[in-house]
Amino acid sequence: MKYPIGIQSFESLREDGYMYVDKTAQIYKLAHTGRYYFLSRPRRFGKSLLISTMKAYFQGKEKLFSGLALEQLENEWTQYPVLHLDLNTGRYDSKENLEYVLDDALSEWESIYGSTGKTLDLRFKDVVRSAYEKTGQKVVILVDEYDKPMLEAINDKELQEQYRRTLKAFYSVLKTQDSYIRFAFLTGVTKFSKVSIFSDLNNLEDLTMNPDYGDICGISEKELHAYFEDSIKRLAEANSMTYEQACAKLKELYDGYHFAPDTVGMYNPFSLLNTLKTRRFGDYWFQTGTPTSLVNWLRENDYDLNKLQTQDVTVDVLNEVETMDRTPITFFYQSGYLTITDYEAEFDTYHLGFPNREVEKGFTSFLAPYYTKIGRAGSDFFVKDFVNDVRQGRPEDFIARLQAMLDDSDYRIAGTFEKYFQNTLYVVFKMMGFYTQVERATSQGRIDVVVQTKDYVYVMELKVDTPAEEALAQIETKGYALPYSADGRKVFKIGVNFSSETRSIAEWQCKGE
What we know:
Strand order of the largest sheet: 2-3-4-1-5
Helix content: 40-55%
Oligomer: single chain
Radius of gyration: 26 Å
Strand content: 15-25%
Shape: elongated
Largest sheet: 5 strands, parallel
Distance between the termini: 56 Å
């Protein structure tokens, strides 16, 4: 089997015999039920291949669809003029670079259809009309990653405003040239509400949270078994696993994306295909791009990392984004680091969480060097010894390792000390793969940190410049350990005093029962 990893051209994929998970029935439905669409999906989720498939369809390349759903659905195979704008290409670190990319696309279209416009938006407007007049067919407009320039300037408000003005004028053509347009489809990671296509083009249909198209990108459980059954069996054999074990691990690592409530979970196609091809489980998607600007924002704003999985949001927060001034939640969701895990219809709120183990592990590992020394050179033995200490019920040893790690840190702390230390412990334990809760609510208060293993529970209260004895006493008086007292595991109550002067653990006390 030939796996289409990194192949974004539908024509190349079909002609060269790569596996294709058939999404063409949905493309036919879109083409015959509406005109203007927008779809947001995370990177590496198949948006470019979707656009390329639409391009081949509207160009009337019937032979490419042999054996697919569209072959049976379509009878006319009309050839339309297609204007395909791919903003994946280009580095957008200046206004001129965006203009170069737009100019390059316009020049290509003008060489075919002609144009008399002078500015970028007028040239686009004119080439749409010219394409219609020259061919006698209405125009199909496909824009891939419409928002990439805006995303690359997310921390540069002046440059982002320049991009906004340029793109607002450019995309306004979708409204002014409506009489010449047969179909328009735009993809992106985020939805910038103040760009023209959303603020002015009120007939644009947003498919992002439409349950009918929740599986238009990615691979569903049903598709996994329909197309890759033999691949799963080879994966299981290569890893000395049963078929059932291999399926369970694939689901744990790569499934779990939900783009609307009560929809099937979707597998990350990039990670899934890489795993099936190499027969090795790995963090493929996370390694292709890291949210450095988002992590910097988390640290600089002293953001409570636990909120990434506990904060409820409204649909407006999920759908629209402009800056990170208030919260990064929207960016984490739209970029694929968080997904919908639950929905409360009564309050119209969504609960978010990590979609799968690959993202959770990759994200916390990526956070580690920003909060700790873990992840830097020479930390491998720290990780191994720390994990063994936690698993084997040796709190004195793993806290001593934490103290040594903090003593060796050479960075400054942003925000409050208590929140910083809490975030540090959250990152450390999460990265090690332990079930970790921060600010766990009880009837008597909130437990700072709870870490659970198969055999042990660690209940921790963190204080700053306050005796560890008082922290331990708070665990006792408020009964923080009571929820775990009857489940057969040994419970350790740990009071920790952090020093604001040394930025490390000053002392701790531990009591096991």
